[in-house]
Amino acid sequence: MRGATPEPGPRTVGVVGGGQLGRMLALAGIPLGVRCVVLEPGADPPAGPVAEVVAAPYDDLDGLAALARRCEVVTYEFENVPVAAAEWLAERVPVRPGPLALGTAQDRLAEKRLFTALGIGTPPYVAVDDRAGLRPAVAEVGLPAVLKTRRLGYDGKGQVVLRAAGDVDAAWETLGGVPLLLEGFVAFDRELSIVAARGLGGEVAAFPVVANHHQGGILRLTLAPAPAPAPAPALHRGLQEQAEALVGRVLDALDYVGVIAVELFEVGGALLANELAPRVHNSGHWTIEGAETSQFEQHLRAVCGLPLGSAAARGWSAMVNLVGDEPDPAAVLAVPGAHLHRYGKAPRPGRKLAHVTVTAPDEATRDQRLADVLGACGLAPPAP
To answer: In terms of Cα–Cα distance, which of 145, 150, 111 is closest to 128?
Structure first.
């Protein structure tokens, strides 16, 4: 009797970071027979109930070595992993996506320069390295503008809007002392994003473009696919094609493997690139129930060298972030098509605790169910 032929691809994936994204990656791996091991310094991380945890700081060599010994490939669930740690791991085990993508996403100036080099439109931008350089940058970019830290900014942190010349000194006092970037303020029509995956062989699968609504710099709501801008009867096919071409150039330039998200501004039917995230992304959470293949399964397929799945939508979806507090689960789950994902995190102002995916066979039903979910959560509908 012949022995069973081993299945191709890694069966254990190391994940740097044990937050809710690591948790959802581990859950997506279970049906595939893929086990996740997370490196996480925090106590009782969200990924803990579903993955083995190596408890160590992200730059701890003993912890990194323990992670490398336990897996065949390493990925990460957030972009502020030390690049040196990713490079150290890459000498011992494949790291996907690679350190180049990680380093690029950690520096807003490097991101913008990548987009520019690839012919992708962005808001106007100027690097600000010291106090003396701020006013010339304002003169070049104009006002209003947004002053941002080049590193460690997320969920609206590390940025200040300058609306008048009198705001310059106060902005420097708030953010000065670290490398900064001044960007022109974009009067966008909508905030969009595209999530896509690239496999080991260079194949790409892109999910539908989605529309995002933020509050206080934190994503609160995603609509998938993005509703058609009035008065168009359907999302213009050219918008999806623009986004797919844009993200494809980024994926190829970085020799990327895994899921990536590019946040976009829509301005008069054209797309400007805002930021990229070299990982599974909050605006892709709807894919768990709303797409043929979730972004989490897709990421594991890619980094393990497995064929990518279909990124097609199953009807219409929405994703609602639950921030700071959680509603009564029974009230949410009473809404048809509502799926609650709790992260096991203690409540805290501004903290993402859970999300709800709303699915429906058509846009009108989705919108009604979404309204019911927002009501159950005590949340206001997004501004039009």
So the answer is: 150
Return the amino acid letter for 229: P
The Cα–Cα gap between 297 and 25 comes to: 7
Distance CA 303, CA 280 (A): 12
CB-based contacts of 14, cutoff 8 Å, min separation 6: 36, 37, 38, 39, 67, 68, 70, 71, 73, 74, 75, 89, 93
Q: Does residue 334 or residue 228 have the better pLDDT?
A: 334
Element (H, E) at 127: strand 125-128
Over the stretch 145-189, which tens digit does the pLDDT of each residue have? Answer: 999 999 876 655 688 999 998 888 888 888 977 899 999 999 999
d(CA 128, CA 108): 12
Indicate the pLDDT class of residue 217, thresholds 50, 70 and 90: confident
Task: Return d(Cα 25, Cα 37) in angstroms, integer.
Answer: 10
Q: At what angle do helices 20-32 and 295-303 cross, to 10 degrees?
A: 70
Distance (Å, whole) CA 313 – CA 197: 15
DSSP three-state, residue 184:
strand
> Which DSSP category does 152 fall into?
S
Specify the length of the chain in residues: 384
Residue owning tokens 């986004």: 243
The one-letter amino acid at 193: S
- Here the tokens at position 104 are 């690029």
Q: CB neighbours of 239 closer than 8 A, spacing ≥ 6?
A: 192, 209, 226, 266, 269, 271
Residue 271 contacts residue 263 (beta carbons within 8 Å)? no
From CA 351, how far away is CA 355, in angstroms rounded? 12
Nearest to 222 by CA among 316, 350, 304, 119: 316
pLDDT tens digits, 307-359: 999 999 999 999 999 999 999 999 999 999 999 999 999 999 999 999 999 99
Q: Residue 301 — φ and ψ, nearest 5°?
A: -55, -45
Neighbours of 97 (CB within 10 A): 26
